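Here is an idea for our session: we take a single protein and study its fold together. To get us started, please write out a protein record for me. Once you have written the record down, we can walk along the chain together.
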Amino acid sequence: MTASLDITPSTIDRIRHDLVGLKMPRALEALDHVVRRLEKGEIAALEAIDILLSEELTLRENSRIKTALRMGRLATIKTLAGFDFSFQPSLDRDRILALAQLGFVARGEVVHFLGPPGTGKSHLAIALGVEAVKAGRSVYFCTLAELIAGLAQAEREGRLRERLRFFCRPALLVVDEIGYLPVVPGGGNLFFQLVNARYEKGAMILTSNRGFAEWGEVFGDPVVATALLDRLLHHAVVVQIEGSSYRLRQHAALMPEHLRSKAAISPPIQGQPPRPRGRPPKNGHLSATA
């Protein structure tokens, strides 16, 4: 006796009705094709059930990931597969892939990506955030300027505690572009309150074009910067990226040979004047992004 003898129109109609009631649109869409394969003897009954459930689960998982990425403000999707490790030989690829296992998220640690503009800091931060979303972890992405602006507005409106709780909810908070724009007065203290609230409770990824020794200048207060680093470096992974800007790679070939060595954007060297392209100009506008 073949499986097709047990399949009647009334049975199919009842299954359709049940799939609609269970809100399983993908399984409903795949039902006719699966039944035809079942009638031809290409698959067994259990395989048919497995296919329908897998189709529905895939749809729901993709929908969950899409929603989580949108809620986490990860609109621009970057992946580790899309990162050109060959362009940044200073990076240990195995170390980055180990971070993608997300052990640092479970341990509530902080990952720092430091390096000149265009070296892939934001790409790696977003890619790890995407991996966390796929693994079912909650993620939120913002720049330091956006974060501080949100906290400052909440403070003015008497909602600072509520806003701090909002930023403490994600399992992983990604804060991009530390050091690119001047921090408004009091901003360092607001950021410290958030870091202190997440300390040993929630993981963070931070990207910066400025070395830790410059954070006193970045936040306009050496005392606040020291307090920040005391917590941000206690349970931390620091990834220093040294190399040229990926975005400028095509233009480098157009430059005279004797100037190509100067095209690489290097981090500021302590004791020497900082290079202009690695710091925001006084008017607060940028000529390069992370």
Residues 45-71 form the longest helix (27 residues). The chain has a mean pLDDT of 86. The first strand starts at residue 110 and ends at 114. Residues 85-278 form a domain with the Rossmann fold fold (CATH 3.40.50.300).
